[in-house]
Amino acid sequence: MDPVPSPRGYPIVGNVMDIDPEHPNESLAHIAAIYGPVFRLWLPAERVFVGSYAAAKDLFREHRFQKGVTGPLAQVRHATGDGVFTAMPGEHGWEIAHRVLMPAFGPLSIKAMFPEMQDIASQMVLRWARFNEDHAINAADDFTRLTLDSIALCVMGDRFNSFYREHQHPFVDAMVGTLTESFTRSRRLPLPSMVYSAQDKAFQLDVDRLVQISQELLTTRRAHPSDKKDLLNAMIKRRDPKTGEGLDDPTIIRNMITFLIAGHETTSGMLSFFFYELLENPAAYRKAQEEVDTVIGKSGVTVDHMGKLPYLEACLAKGDQVIGGKYTIKDKHYVTVMLAQLHRDPEVYGADAQSFRPERMEGKAFSELPANSWKLLIKTSLTIKPQDFYIKAHLRDPEFLHHAGLVSGEHVPEEKKSSKSHTKAIADSAPDNGFKAEVQGLDSAVSSLKGDVPVVIVTASYEGLPPDNATHFVEWLKSDPSEEVMGVKYCVFGVGNKEWVSTYQKIPTFVDDALSKNGATRLTDRIALDVTSGNIFDFVDEWQEKSLWPKLGGKKKESDSSVKTLSLEIDV
């Protein structure tokens, strides 16, 4: 094996002087241009950096590599602890929070937040519309206001009202101080702690401010309980389905800080680059504008429009776009994937990889990209944004101001939030079709499927894996249990999000193929429901009416008093 290339360092400080603290990504890109896509630095701890798809693809295999919480991220733990993004692998608090929060992050749950997202977005758009056309708008600041307020309202039911403040919300000031100092602390020279006493004091004050704001939100919710099905209530009320444990207040606060920091910083950075690239590329801007005019026109934006704007999706993906059998990586060594380099790899994206061409992220072209060749970027300030990026807003239709107070859009009922809602819809329809539905988790179906009881399996993939209460069922199917499933009548209803290309419908497809391979009989072809595509509830109703119930014998006749059993297996 070849030694990993590395620029020459200095005693004690290593390669710290090779990295510009104000522009670390540019420094790393410069080093990659000299030493290639794989190189080693001492900052001052040893770390390998990877910046090409060919070298990085093995790193995305989670059975071989796991998250390393080091550098600036390790310093952020002073504020977020075992929150879902800074937890150490296997940390118990993270495992509980992960299982408690997973249902609240489902696509249907996000759709139910649409009216509140629209509320905050309308505040920003109306503010822009009321400026004169020569007013310079600080895009990064306003997108920070937009995303912070959206998360606070949707996730915690609180209004930060950032668009009604002259300065940013105090949370932003404390967050910026925490993140900036986290990066600085990760590069400190090994000097006595008294040398850094002033910086440490300021850092702790910022961390304390983040905790204080989150504690106030939690205290307010406990004092004024609500039935709102948001993340805060999920953390307060839900129990871990595996251990029965709940989340204590410190864990809730750490995760609140995590959501407010990681959620709003990454999204505001993406939106800033999205607008910057569109304004730099007039042809792409016009095409995006034409798509909005065609799909939405002058009507209000609704949640159903979200799955009908493929070019805008491609623009967003491209705006965020923009160890191979050669080197030995020893156990417990840290490797950093340079996403900015990975997203511009000419071996994947072509010779014009540096150009803003959204078409490469649209439709079939996007789905054919190699797995893991692009990632939605979680950045480390923690984020990067265009510096001194100001925009001017021109009101295309003056009538907008007369109707700006009217918000159009259908509210998605909160109970319709996951695979459970589809299972409930099928179960509710069963009596009208001569069946009594029995709903149970997939793991309970191990070795218990019956030839005289038809089975509808409603399942999804979670990062390509089954959820906790379906792992035994999937492992059982891998053992080829032909004697136990022979003759069982079944159909698989797969729920997924097409944006997760490499794992879309992975578990539903496996379950369907495994049952068929072992002798079970399909009632209908596997259903692949994409939750981003329009009115999914109408889709479920139509599938039941035209396919499921006819295959099971049609609607119950008035003279038929018999009731048959239908087994509904669900993985959530």
TrEMBL record:
InterPro entries linked: Cyt_P450, Cyt_P450_E_grp-I, Cyt_P450_sf, Cytochrome_P450_Monoox, Flavodoxin/NO_synth, Flavoprotein-like_sf
Q: Which UniProt keywords apply?
A: Electron transport, FAD, Flavoprotein, FMN, Heme, Iron, Metal-binding, Monooxygenase, NADP, Oxidoreductase, Transport
Enumerate the Gene3D superfamilies for this protein. Answer: 3.40.50.360, Cytochrome P450 (1.10.630.10)
Domain of life, source organism: Eukaryota
Q: Which cofactor does it need?
A: FAD; heme; FMN
Q: Which Pfam families did the record assign?
A: Flavodoxin_1 (PF00258), p450 (PF00067)
Q: Which family does it belong to?
A: In the N-terminal section; belongs to the cytochrome P450 family. Belongs to the cytochrome P450 family.
Q: Which PANTHER family match?
A: BIFUNCTIONAL ALBAFLAVENONE MONOOXYGENASE_TERPENE SYNTHASE (PTHR24291:SF50), CYTOCHROME P450 FAMILY 4 (PTHR24291)
Query: Which protein, by its recorded name, is this?
Result: Flavodoxin-like domain-containing protein
**Source species, please?**
Didymella pomorum
Classification lineage? Eukaryota, Fungi, Dikarya, Ascomycota, Pezizomycotina
